[in-house]
Amino acid sequence: MKYFLLTLLLASSAALAEVVVIVHPSGPDSMEKNQIRDLYIGRSKQLPGGQTADPIDLAQGQQLRDEFHTKVTGRSQAQLNAFWSKQVFTGKGQPPRMLDSSASVKAAVASTPGAIGYIEASEVDGSVKVTFTP
To answer: Which pTM does this prediction carry?
Structure first.
């Protein structure tokens, strides 16, 4: 039984995809985790270099979204919901726009200067630039 649980645990951790943060090809070559976190929780509105940022999030309920926010913003889905509810209610901010799929995120980032998003590492191609790997 002990080995079965260990095998199950290892298999589930291997199933997690490697998330990477991407930007438009004109965006910064690299960013720090705290810079990305600040964009996704509304503390900052600019990419390094001063370009206005357009953060793009995956829709709720997607595993990659949970992985990104756990690794980068340090917040669970419930914490994010509570945070953004308060921000919107007090007029202090709006959450990043959400798209339904990694393919949509990649296409939006590729076509929008200033855009920043996240996808699985295996989906990266020449249309976007990887700026951070958590």
So the answer is: 0.86
